[in-house]
Amino acid sequence: MRRITTLLTLMLMVAMVFNIGCKKKEEGEEKGGEVTITGSTTILPIMQRIAEVYMEKHPEYEISVSGGGSGVGITALLDGTADIAMASRTMKDKEWATAKEKQLDIKEVEIARDGIAVVLHPTNPVSGLTLEQLKDIYIGKTKNWKEVGGPDLDIVVVSRDSASGTFEVFNKKVLKDEKLRVDALMQASNAAVRSSVEGSEGAIGYIGLGYITGDVKPIKIDGVEPTEKLILSGEYPIARSLYLYLKSDAIKAANDVVDFVLSNEGQKIVREVGYIPLK
């Protein structure tokens, strides 16, 4: 009888330990979690800083952020390999269709405004182009800077690759879906575009506002500078919104991060990084 009582006591103790462990695990999952964010290199600096600040405040969270382009991020979200996709364009119809086929309810969250700045090498005297001149350069109709009032110097066209949301917006607003010149240097990130332009006197490229440095020269388009005021007023012609995408049933940790981006502190980070906050 004593052996049975002892056995029952041991079983009860094991059950209590198991329940306590499960409860602690559930509490841990509720308090924190791992969040994977990938996509647009335009938004990358924003979310890298967001992750740093948020993890300092909430060490129970583990947030990983990587680039690759808007298309890469959205694909990862739809495939289930990312919790949040960064996109410098809206989702395409075929991406929404894929989400529907997979029975995924996707949320679109605007987090900032941006202008796509056209940049030249600092030594290039050209200070502005019309949209038509810019288009002619990128489709190969104009090949020398002297054709647009600049020096007798071949134009080196630098562009983002097709996985980029920045390319999608530039293609729509500038190229009007005409074919990009075949000898354009295709780059995988804003930083790579900037590096190519600063390394070649005849180069022209386009980057998000947050990537402008003294190593490149932003120019006017149709007589308008890419400033916050002129972007918000709609006068600057190559402007866009920046987005995060996540599933409507995303883990709590992912929703917490998005909420932080939209908070006053998060929007302050948007401005500090070089973009235009929503508020």
UniProtKB/TrEMBL annotation:
<feature type="domain" description="PBP">
    <location>
        <begin position="28"/>
        <end position="265"/>
    </location>
</feature>
<keyword id="KW-0813">Transport</keyword>
<dbReference type="InterPro" id="IPR011862">
    <property type="entry name" value="Phos-bd"/>
</dbReference>
<dbReference type="GO" id="GO:0006817">
    <property type="term" value="P:phosphate ion transport"/>
</dbReference>
<dbReference type="InterPro" id="IPR050811">
    <property type="entry name" value="Phosphate_ABC_transporter"/>
</dbReference>
<comment type="function">
    <text>Involved in the system for phosphate transport across the cytoplasmic membrane.</text>
</comment>
<dbReference type="Pfam" id="PF12849">
    <property type="entry name" value="PBP_like_2"/>
</dbReference>
<dbReference type="InterPro" id="IPR024370">
    <property type="entry name" value="PBP_domain"/>
</dbReference>
<keyword id="KW-0592">Phosphate transport</keyword>
<dbReference type="GO" id="GO:0042301">
    <property type="term" value="F:phosphate ion binding"/>
</dbReference>
<comment type="similarity">
    <text>Belongs to the PstS family.</text>
</comment>
<keyword id="KW-0732">Signal</keyword>
<protein>
    <recommendedName>
        <fullName>Phosphate-binding protein</fullName>
    </recommendedName>
</protein>
